[in-house]
Write a structure and sequence with these properties.
Bound molecules: iron/sulfur cluster
Mean pLDDT: 94
Low-confidence stretches: none
Largest sheet: 8 strands, parallel, barrel
Order of helices and strands: EEEHEHEHEHHEHEHEHHEHHHHH
Number of domains: 2
Helix content: 40-55%
Number of strands: 10
CATH topology of the largest domain: TIM Barrel
Strand content: 5-15%
Number of helices: 14
Shape: globular
Structural class: alpha/beta
Distance between the termini: 52 Å
Length: about 375
């Protein structure tokens, strides 16, 4: 069974606007292939994601034909009543009267303190009791020990949304494997985010790609990443942020659990990719708006990774960097305030890495 969920974080664009013609076709195709789960959040696209849910999904399909998950911006809450105000605004933006799944967005050490201070879990329980949220939970970006604490303190949650992919499975920073095992221990359903690590696992270094091609010449690299997470029994939904029809159709193909030979291939490919990825940025862009210097952080990291992986291509990348700095701050404009780093789910030392970027592109 395909556990694919439609993530509304990265939507198809036409210039600066959402390409509704393509998005509508993708939503219809997803539903006609048996998909039901859609995921959005208050902060995605500065609210445009929730509006896109209303326009592309809710207005065009029967409410009982899909399952809608939304998230409270847990860190923006300053009083219990704020939770209700956000929730009501979200219902209105999405054009619905209830959510099938409602999550506290982005729990980590700091945000968990805010949630506890303002009783955000009590708000979730209230919603569930009133039928306004069928299932409740949280999305999570911190270590396995804290996850264990939260799930022990709050056995009422039904679902945890975790970043899981084969590259992060044994990562000391993300602890995807350990977090999964904690969720499993507590008997929670797992919704997976970033299964393809922001597209990183869709385009692999040639040596890693060759390992997979030797076994299945025709399968895409992304399909290996999706099969890895779909093989995990506690996983109920695998979110993919798709912005082309080709990605959607590829993701909708049948998925069977990885066998022992395929698991071994994933391990070998993962080791190669890790060795060749200088900065593990997923391109989520959560950091960007917090930078007072308007530095195009994820774009510069992508360029830097490309140059590290293909040193002979630096002549192609340098003009792209030069064009970017006409519109954004340069890497060397970074003042080291680190306000970006507090919002990076990958725990990347952004300021330090920008120093490296500047050394390469601002010689
Ligand atoms: S540390 Fe650098 S990149 Fe990060 S917000 Fe501050 S100036 Fe911007
Ligand atoms: S640096 Fe971190 S927050 Fe910024 S785009 Fe990359 S992964 Fe996302």
């Amino acid at each position: 069974m395909n556990k694919l969920g439609f993530g509304f974080l990265r939507l198809p664009q036409s210039g600066e606007a959402i390409d509704y013609s393509l998005l509508n076709t993708m939503v219809d195709t997803f539903l006609s292939h048996g998909g039901t789960y859609f995921d959005t959040a208050y902060t995605y696209g500065d609210g445009q994601s929730e509006i896109a849910i209303r326009e592309s999904l809710v207005k065009r399909h029967a409410r009982e034909s899909f399952c809608l998950a939304d998230k409270l911006p847990s860190w923006k809450v300053n009083a219990y009543e704020d939770c209700r105000q956000y929730f009501e605004e979200q219902l209105e933006r999405c054009g619905v009267t209830f959510f099938d799944v409602y999550l506290l967005h982005w729990l980590n050490h700091d945000n968990y303190q805010i949630c506890e201070k303002y009783n955000e879990f009590a708000f979730l329980r209230e919603l569930k009791a009133a039928g306004k949220a069928k299932k409740i939970g949280f999305s999570y970006h911190d270590n396995a020990a804290l996850l264990d604490t939260i799930l022990t303190d709050h056995p009422e949650v039904d679902i945890v949304q975790l970043q899981i992919n084969y590259l992060d499975w044994d990562s000391a920073a993300i602890e995807a494997g350990n977090c999964y095992r904690v969720a499993e221990k507590h008997g929670k359903s797992v919704v997976v985010m970033e299964p393809v690590k922001g597209g990183t696992l869709a385009k692999l270094p040639p040596e890693a790609e060759a390992i997979f091609r030797e076994i299945h010449p025709d399968q895409s690299m992304a399909s290996w990443a999706l099969r890895f997470v779909q093989s995990l029994p506690q996983v109920e939904v695998v979110l993919s942020g798709m912005n082309t029809m080709q990605q959607l159709l590829d993701n909708l193909q049948d998925v069977s659990p990885l066998n022992a030979e395929e698991q071994a291939a994933v391990q070998r490919a993962s080791a190669i990719i890790t060795a060749q990825t200088a900065i593990p940025c997923t391109g989520c862009r959560y950091c960007e708006s917090y930078c007072p210097k308007h530095i195009a952080i994820p774009d510069y990291f992508a360029m830097y990774n490309e140059v590290c992986r293909y040193p002979n291509d630096d002549w192609k990348i340098q003009p792209v960097y030069n064009a970017f700095v006409q519109q954004h701050g340069k890497a060397s404009d970074c003042v080291g305030c680190k306000s970006c780093e507090r919002h990076c789910p990958q725990h990347i030392s952004i300021a330090d890495h920008l120093t490296q970027v500047a050394k390469v592109f601002e010689r």
